[in-house]
Amino acid sequence: MDIRERIQEQTILDLTRKLAIYGKCALVRCMGFGKTKIMAEISSRYNRVLFLYPTKYSREEIEAHLKRTDGVDFMTYHALTQADIIPRYDLICLDEVHRCGAKETKKAIRKLMTSQKAYFVGATGTPDRMDSFDVIKEFFDNICVYEYTLHDAFVDGIVKRPYYCYCTYDLETDLKQAALTAGEDPEDPKVKEVIDAKLIEWADIFDIPDVIRDTIEECGAESSYMKFIVFFSCFKQLHEKASEVEEWFQSAYMNLRIRCTIVTSETPEYTNNLEILKDMVPEDGTIDLIFCVEMLSMSAHLDNLTGIVMYRGTSSSVVYMQQLGRALSAGSDKPGIVFDIVDNLHRKSIFRLEGENRKKERVGKQSGEEWWHDMDVLSEDDMRATGFEATYRELLAKAVAEPIANRCRIVLNEHRRLWQEAIDESYPSSREVLERDVPLMNLAEWQEVTVKQVLDMLFPEAV
């Protein structure tokens, strides 16, 4: 038994034990860990099983791992919101359980969990939602499998560390903003020296074909056949930019044939192309570019995938991690390549970090029962170097500080609610009044953030 099988087996044992004790448990594991396989394994022990899932692709992934189909039913989350009566089940599995935070879906899930005497398993690789609804707390009472983060998976070799290359366009502005995000003064002589050096280093960043070719060669990837998923934000952007992406790869590898496939819900033809992906056979001398909007962002693990191209700009850490997750795969022999064309890494800077020592401490911190809030924390070695490597500070800003900012919002919303219930006056308009009269400590400790972090979020002008 290799280490991947051993860790998966330990996860199954812990999940089984907690189901027996509590009747429910969240299966929180990083993208590429093999959560679908684990749910399929657990389901084989029960007579009547219901799988709830968000997309057709999710269902197909589950079916591929099932040992038997008798006694197993499937239902989308949307269908659940429309259902009046649900038959009795012994086990109910919720795939991509973070999707259960939608307004009508969470009503249906609450009704299901109160009406059924079944065991419940909820699997997700991105438990934190941008609307601050905590599905693990609300549906599973913070009962979760033992701590095992994306960083742990990298260290153990279960998931290969990807090569990460990001491209930026307004170079000087972006570099200064990155310095501000990291708590540095862009006008400081030492910081300016670093910025100037980076400007020289990235002088040819606009030549994307060279960036693509140089990165792939530096990564040592197989170049006789390659396959990339290209994420776009909408149908319009896909149709406007797809040819540009095709030209990049063609210019980088003029001797290879570029084969493009669109997978979206825009037309029946594009939707049906999802079926083509399953039978796509690698051909020497070919680069397959799979252009998609939304449909492959979850539960999609394609064979022979070289990497991904992020052409979808997002400020959502959930969407970002789901895109990144397509480049991660349990048991893959080679690391994936990430071309972050739109520089998603720096898109969110509503937070600030307070020194390298504090950040390093947080990377190794154990977070108790709610460890999954930091499950996507990346360490200094979690991204393999390329010529345009994302720095440790930049990765931490995205993967550590952003979730902290999200939890600050939860604390603020809860504090406002309690204030309105207890005190018949308007919410404090100044940092000083709030700090003096109504400490946030208890609420802040509940979400594992400091009072200062909460106040900085509430009164950014004071930062």
Topology diagram in text:
Layout: H1 3-22, E1 24-28, H2 35-43, E2 49-53, H3 56-65, E3 72-76, H4 77-82, E4 91-94, H5 103-115, E5 119-124, H6 135-140, H7 150-156, E6 163-166, H8 171-181, H9 189-201, H10 208-219, E7 225-231, H11 235-252, E8 257-263, H12 268-278, E9 286-292, E10 307-310, H13 317-325, E11 337-340, H14 356-363, H15 392-422, H16 431-437, H17 441-446, H18 451-458
Helix pairs in contact: 2-3, 8-9, 10-11, 15-18
Q: What general form does the structure show?
A: globular
User: What's the total helix number?
Assistant: 18
Tell me the helix content: 40-55%
Q: Structural class, judged by helices and strands?
A: alpha/beta
Number of strands: 11
Q: Which stretches are low in confidence, meaning pLDDT under 50 for 5 or more residues running?
A: 348-367, 387-393
Order of helices and strands: HEHEHEHEHEHHEHHHEHEHEEHEHHHHH
SS strand fraction: 5-15%
**Roughly how many Å is the radius of gyration?**
23 Å
Average pLDDT taken over every residue: 78
Largest sheet: 6 strands, parallel
Distance between the termini: 52 Å
Strand order of the largest sheet: 6-11-10-7-9-8
Task: Describe the protein.
With 463 residues, the chain is α/β, with parallel strands linked by helices. Helices cover 44% and strands 13% of the residues. The chain has 18 helices and eleven strands. A six-stranded parallel sheet has the order 6-11-10-7-9-8. Strands 1-5-4-2-3 form a five-stranded parallel sheet. About 6% of the residues have low confidence.
